[in-house]
From TrEMBL:
EC number: 3.1.3.2
Domain Purple acid phosphatase C-terminal intervals: 382-444
Species, as recorded: Aplysia californica
Pfam families: Metallophos (PF00149), Metallophos_C (PF14008), Pur_ac_phosph_N (PF16656)
Calcineurin-like phosphoesterase domain residues: 152-357
Protein's gene: LOC101852169
Protein known as: Purple acid phosphatase
Length: 462
């Protein structure tokens, strides 16, 4: 087993650090043909597309293209195709006005086009257009069909418009073809609404080179709370979301679930959404656990902004044994996400909020549930947690308690981000990149699940 683990780690690391000659040729050809620029044509109309980003659609064969313009346009369209010089397909969408809640009541128009019927595992080039302006050319690659492939993701949270230290390295990784998707685990720009939304505009433009070419999947964080999260709701379109701020999607052998932890902390925006999300989440996880579904997509991975656990020294809620995200209503454990995740056999929970990185031992109800002393992440009896909120923002680093709890396995305050490769239906390789250490891998592990399912059932088999 150790030899298998070492071989997987070496192979996975190689897949992260090497890329094909074909990728190099495609990238160079793209830069040369497009004149080495992704600038938009404006003509002084205020209708030039900006803040372009993509996300997976409701089906694997779909991609959502989102952008904004300062002024209204009569047309929202995407021209796309498999060859850069032959964008022969056209899909039209819609736009709506978004008015920021700040004192200036600044407005912009958010455009959305859903590309449908895309061929799997295929590179498409595209431009977004109005009747008077168009963007430069971008490209994306669709996910392969079925479940028998190995998704590769970059995962991070808490990236600001200022001090986004990890962004250049992420952009370089993406240009090398290292990722199938990106997950941003809440807290954008610091803040999307700041300065009447101008900081949000700056951030969206800064991430465009990354988010316009790699599906940029998100969840909401506490820094998005202004005006009932209106900037987040307007700027990001996620699959099957419809503005609720929670959704799920499938990617190869993985079922991903995105939740809002913020409903619990901002009840002034309504109590019903707390219960509605919990009911939806329970149904979604139960559906994912149906035998025909779990056999196809055995990995269940959740992501939300505020962690259940953390060992930082800042007195955030996750440092408490009774954190709201973990236990729900204190003492009564009503709406407890940890109990629900344990009952439904969630394999991995990803969090951010703390401006640091922390890996937990598999845990449930404050108790370590390692697979064994020698192989803690092989068939564990509890949920594995990763906290990855160190991408870089204006609030800088956060640090840790001198004597962390027994469930804390490793932590670092370095700026950086997390890479994940779901090698197959049983092996998940995770590594942490330190941007402070020039891209050094400062932590890695392989989660091995030879059986997936509710932990009560799995533990009873032992």
């Amino acid at each position: 087993m150790l030899q298998c683990h070492d071989q997987l780690s070496r192979n996975s690391l190689k897949s992260f650090t090497m890329y094909s000659q074909q990728t190099i040729v495609l990238t160079l050809a793209f830069v040369l043909i497009s004149g080495g620029t992704l600038k938009t044509a404006d003509h002084g109309t205020g209708k030039a597309p900006q803040h372009i980003h993509i996300s997976y659609g409701d089906l694997p064969s779909q991609m959502i293209i989102t952008w904004s313009t300062p002024n209204k346009t009569d047309l929202s369209s995407v021209h796309y195709g498999r060859e850069l010089l032959h964008l022969v397909n056209v899909e039209e969408g819609s736009s709506h006005i978004f008015v920021d809640g700040g004192t200036e009541k600044r407005s912009q128009y958010i455009h959305r086009v859903d590309l449908k019927g895309l061929t799997g595992n295929t590179t498409y080039y595209y431009k977004v257009r109005s009747e008077e302006s168009e963007s430069g050319a971008f490209y994306f690659r669709t996910m392969p069909e079925g479940q028998d492939w190995s998704p590769r993701l970059a995962v991070f949270g808490d990236m600001g418009a200022t001090n986004a230290q990890s962004l250049p390295r992420l952009e370089l990784d993406a240009a090398k073809g290292m990722y199938d998707a990106v997950i941003h685990v809440g807290d954008f720009a610091y803040d999307l609404s700041k300065d009447n939304g101008k900081i949000g505009d700056q951030f969206m433009q800064e991430i465009q080179s990354l988010a316009a070419s790699v599906p940029y999947m998100t969840c909401v964080g506490n820094h998005e709370n202004s005006y009932n999260f209106s900037n987040y709701r307007a700027r990001f379109n996620m699959p099957n979301d419809n503005g609720k701020m929670y959704y799920s999607f499938n990617m190869g052998p993985v079922h991903f679930v995105s939740i809002s932890t913020e409903f619990l902390y901002f009840p002034d925006y309504g109590f019903t959404q707390i219960y509605e999300q919990y009911d939806w989440l329970k149904k979604d996880l139960m559906e994912a656990n149906q035998p025909e579904n779990r056999s196809k997509r055995p990995w269940i991975v959740t992501f939300g902004h505020r962690p259940m656990y953390c060992s930082n020294n800042d007195n955030d809620d996750c440092t408490s044994n009774e954190s709201l995200v973990r236990v729900g209503v204190p003492l009564l454990r009503i709406l407890s996400l940890e109990d629900l995740y344990y009952q439904q056999g969630v394999d991995l929970s990803i969090w951010a909020h703390e401006h640091s990185y922390e890996r937990l031992w598999p845990v449930y109800n404050l108790k370590v549930r390692n697979g064994s002393y020698e192989s803690p992440y092989t068939n564990p009896g509890g949920i594995t947690h990763i906290i990855t909120g160190s991408a870089g923002c204006s609030e800088r680093h956060e640090y840790f308690q001198k004597n962390p709890p027994p469930w804390s396995a490793y932590h670092s305050s370095d700026y950086g981000y997390t890479r994940m490769t779901f090698a197959n239906k049983t092996h998940l390789y995770v590594e942490q990149v330190s941007d402070d250490k020039n891209g050094e891998i400062i932590d890695s592990f392989t989660l091995i699940k030879e059986q997936h399912g509710p932990y009560g059932d799995l533990n009873n088999r032992v």
